Amino acid sequence: MKRSKCILIAQEIRKTIERLHLRMKDRFPESNLANICKELHEISKETDQTVQWIAKPNYWLRFGTYGFILVVVLVLVQSLSQLDVRADGLNLAEFVQMVGSALDSLVLIGAGIVFLVTLENRRKRNRVIHAVNRLRCIAHIVDMHQLTKDPDSIAERGLATAHSPQRALTQYELARYLDYCTEMLSLVSKTAFLYVQDYHDPVATEAVNDLEALTNGLSSKMWQKIMILSAKETGGPLTKPDAGGERSNLAD
C-alpha cells in the first residue's frame, strides 16, 4: 500500500509537468523554455525506475558480502586452531612481530568487510546524487532563461544598445513567462524529493535539500519581478513579503 502511494505521487507530478509543457507551447511556441520543460518531463519518466531501483534490495551483492564474511571467519578459525605458540620458545620481539602482523591482517579484513557492507548503500547514494545533479542543471538553465526578462523594459526607461536582448513580450506575457519558470522550479524540487522519500540517507537527503534551497532562492528572484510587474499594472507600491511573512515596501 505504501509503495502504491509513492508511485501515485510520482505520476501526479509527471502529469503536472506534462500540462505545464503544453501550456508553455501554447503560450510561447517559439520559446526554448518549453523544451526545457520537455526535458524535465523526460527525467520525470525515469523517476519511477530510479525510485524502484533504490528501494529494491540487491540480494546478489548481499549474499556475496555474507559469503565473504563467512569465508573470512572460517579461515581465521582454521588459522587459530592450527596455531602452535609455545611460551618457552617465543621471545618478546617475535611476540610483538606476531601481534603486529595479526593486527595488520585484521585491519585489512575489516576494511574489506566495511567496503562490501556499505557498497550497496553507496551505489544507491551515487544514483540519487547523479539524478539530483541533472535536476540542478535544469534549475540553472531555467534561471538563465529569465535573466534578460527585465520588468523595467516594459516601461521603456532606457534605450536599447546593439547587444541588448530582444524584449518582445508584453507585460502580461512577461508575467506569465516568469510564473511558468517558478512553476518549473517547484516541480524540479518535487521530483527530487521522490528520490529520498523512502530512502533515508543523510548525504542523499542533504543533496535534495540543497537543490530545494536553490530552487526556492531562484523562485524568490522571479517573484520579485512578478510583483514589480503587478505594481506597474495596478499603480500601487512595490511590495514583497519579508522574513516574518509581513509585506514591506520595495520603494523604501
Morphology? elongated
* Structural class determined from secondary elements: mainly alpha
Radius of gyration: 29 Å
Distance between the termini: 53 Å
- Spatial strand sequence of the major β-sheet: 1-2
Quick one: biggest sheet? 2 strands, antiparallel
CATH topology descriptor of the domain at 2-58 and 121-154 and 166-235: Four Helix Bundle (Hemerythrin (Met), subunit A)
Mean pLDDT: 78
Number of helices: 8
- Oligomer state of the chains in this structure: single chain
Named at the architecture level, the CATH assignment of the domain at 2-58 and 121-154 and 166-235 is Up-down Bundle
What's the SSE pattern?
HHHHHHHHEE
**Strand fraction band?**
under 5%
Which CATH C-level class of the domain at 2-58 and 121-154 and 166-235 is it? Mainly Alpha
Estimate the helix proportion, in percent: over 70%
Low-confidence spans: 237-252
DSSP strand tally: 2
Structure, described:
- This protein is mostly helical and 252 residues long.
- The chain has a domain at 2-58 and 121-154 and 166-235: Four Helix Bundle (Hemerythrin (Met), subunit A) (Up-down Bundle).
- Helices cover 75% and strands 2% of the residues.
- It is built from 8 helices and 2 strands, in the order H-H-H-H-H-H-H-H-E-E.
- The protein has helices at 2-27, 33-45, 47-55, 59-81, 92-146, 152-155, 171-196, 202-234, and strands spanning 239-241, 247-249.
- Helix 5 runs parallel beside helix 8 (202-234).
- The longest helix is centred in the middle third of the chain and has 55 residues, at 92-146.
- The radius of gyration is 29 Å and the shape is elongated.
